[in-house]
Amino acid sequence: MSEAFGSDVTQVNRRRFLSGGIAVAGGGVLGAFGVSGTADAASDAGPRQLGGGEIGSGWTFVAADGTAADGSALASAESVAGLRPAIVPGTPLTSMIANGEYPDPLYGHIVTDTVPDSLKDTGYWYRVAFRVPKLIPGQRFWLQFDGINYLGTVWLNGSKVGTVEGAFKRAVFEVTDIVAKADGVAWLAVLVGKLEYTDPPALPSYASGVTRGGRNGGPTGVTLKNGPTFFCTAGWDWLPTIPDRDLGIWQPVTWRTTGPVRVADVQVTSTLSPDLRTAEVAVELALDSAAEKSVVVTGSLDGREFRRTVSVPAGASSVTLTSKEIACLRLDRPKLWWPNGYGEPDRYRLTVGVEVGGQVCDERSVDFGVRRIEYTTPMRSPSGTVSQCLAITVNNQPILVMGGNWGLDEALKRIPRERLRAQVRLHRDANLNLIRNWNGQSSTEDFYAACDEYGILVWQDFFCSTEGPPPENVARDLANIRDCIVRFRNHPSILLWCGGNEGPPPQPLIDGLDALVAELDPQRVVLTSSAGDTGANPVDGYRSGGPYHWVPPAKHFSLNDGTQWPPFHNEVGSYSIPTLEFMRKMLPEASWEHPDDFWADRDVNGNGGNGGGAGYLRLTAERYGEVRNLPDFARKSQLMNYECIKAIYEAPVAHMRSAGPYPRTGVIMWMTNPAQPSFVWQMYSHDLEAHSSFYAVQHACRRINAVLDAQNFDVVVANHSRTVVRGTVEATLYGLDGAEFAGSTVRVDGVAGSDRAVVGSLASQVKGAPSDIAFVRLVLRDPRGAEVVRNFYWVENPERAAGFAGLDGMPAAAVSVIAGVSREPDGLEVAVDVRNIGKSVALMLHLQVYDVRTGERVLPATFSDNYLNLIGGEAATVRVRLDGEQVRRHPEVGVRIDGWKIDQRASRLRGRGVAVTFNQEALATRPAVSTFGR
Q1: Which of 164, 269, 405, 874 has its CA 20 to 30 A from that of 448?
Q2: Where residue 47 falls among pLDDT bands split at 50, 70, 90?
Q3: Cis omega (within 30 of 0) for bond into 661
Q4: Helix (H, G, I), strand (E, B), or coil: what is residue 112?
Q5: Same structural domain for residues 203 and 304?
């Protein structure tokens, strides 16, 4: 049985974890899925030496302070009082939620009012019995823990096996002697030790205007002294204090059998020639042998097999294979791994094993990518010195980094594989090409595998932040860093390693990290921190620093106009309000119309940059008119989201490469993935619904685009494809009545790949608008007249800028919506044809797919487009993919529509095998008496 078998079993169990409700948000019950009895590890392995599986069910747990039993008793058949069913992988709190002890605290509750903070003040015993095979001569048995937060002590059948320290370090124990005496069943007990340093909870206060006391990392920040853990769970401006601090066995526990020689690790490195025509692959095997042996190393790559006989000593050793000895390790015209939007993220699979005496002792499969990365370009800084600035080139193609920051994959570490894949897929669909793994808080095999699959580069931070004291145990920190590098370095998605967040770690950590990368992964760059590099050959030209709150689009263009240093900005964000349906799900009904501490626990105060939640609400009213009720807040917020977040990406796009003296080289939005239900820093909701922020990102990050500079109304053609762009740009301007009042067509003679060009200006036309507000439609066409891309803006007349409250005075739009369904082998596709059949502009038309029986949204739903802006007579077709599991759970689906102002009587809705309706609740924005905030 190969290593791939263990991986497959892991995926099956974790999918079951997902189907139990872990990925569903909003009072979602995790569900029971066989957490009592004996774990289904495996049955007799027979005469073969290889076997393995996940120990994913049958677990129980108890607070360590609440039991007198010790490890020897728990790791036995002895009865122990107080044990309750446990979710593994999971945390104590996720198990308690599954057992009905607490509701999901992220929905309709204030976390710290719902779950006692004392959960963090104890360790936890976990216990499981699992079947083990009868070992044959020479066979060895291994236990592996992929992640325990924070300290783990492992017992098996009454014997202490070993310990592991830190959340991001694996532990592998050989327990052959114990299992050989087990008589078919092994009893496993794990003591999960608590954090060494904790703070009291950080509490939400809407009235304060700041989030959780105005500081990140808890009241004092002492949690950060622990180092390699989920220190953000102390409380951050995007995360409430998590009562158990995400302790627990949070990653899978597996067992494996091997022969006398074990493959402990496989490192694959590829060196791609400058002309991209050949690649040299090197394979280094770390072996663990029970005795000195003559070993045959076998393998295959790209359908070509190889064998080589080597002699290995007892204990640990390594074997290196190169194309000098193994011809198939030289690849001619290799398939390349490309970042999203530049080509396919192709990968190779290497299978390698070791044989002794004609029997396979161990075998591993590794997927890897072939790509060539250059990290810097010389640029003269404001001081006059020329430095090497962060500017990424992949496979000889300059890449404008358009990324998103992840603070934590999920607040309670409910991260089954399919949820992670869906989150990363949303980044792919939004046209992003990078995720920054902030402080390494989302470091799992599933995460990197998804990034490999979808072509998403990873900026990999480690576990140090300026929000508190540095890690106290440097050796523990470096041990976790070492294991992360060894464990994940084969993933082509990993772009670089970074010491931590916003400031340098202590010098011993800097020196240790630099030494580890030089030893273990010298092909990649290592940065000291996200705010600057102090290495021997420092990388310059990047920073953090926001703004983290809402600003008008022109502000982002002024910060990214090519005159501002530095050219790479890795943290900038805004409020990002979800849909009406999601706000109602994440808040108790009594708080829907009345912002309060429940809103604050969902981060509405942000970092206080707009004056907190109350200040942001005032700003929304100033820009778009009085907020009358929650539906009105939802629709106005979607416009606020769209215009600001679109500018975060469009501004760098419009000023890359030839813009100077400091052309943009990258932007990473703070944030794109929400760890919890939230009002800020996201492009989709915690339940994976893409609201207007997502489509703002998607529209801004198209590889070929026509952009309106919000600062000066220049029209810019941005081209980060690999081909020259030629054609024309049609610019048309409309008034509030939908009538065209100006227009022009300009020729695009040729915009080089990875560059941009100003092709015209609309400043005079905008100033000549007949009202305070104008709509601008840009259409880029190729030389044959075919539409390449369409872009749309609402802008203020700079001669009398007064915000957008006047949008409420525009005539309502009449639309035609026709939807049909086509069944496919793996699901179905809903096609929605939307047309503006009136004269007024149809603004921010929003489609949802919903379950006709329950009215609930079907999520995650992959829309080809959404939040449509259509002038009179214009049409668009939107396609929505639902997979087979979604179809099974939602056999009858419908489509509903809302938008800024819709004339329902003049509109036409029609479904072909699918219901089509107006979203009446979202459209109910004009109550007889305003209720919001009153």
Answers
A1: 164
A2: low
A3: yes
A4: helix
A5: no
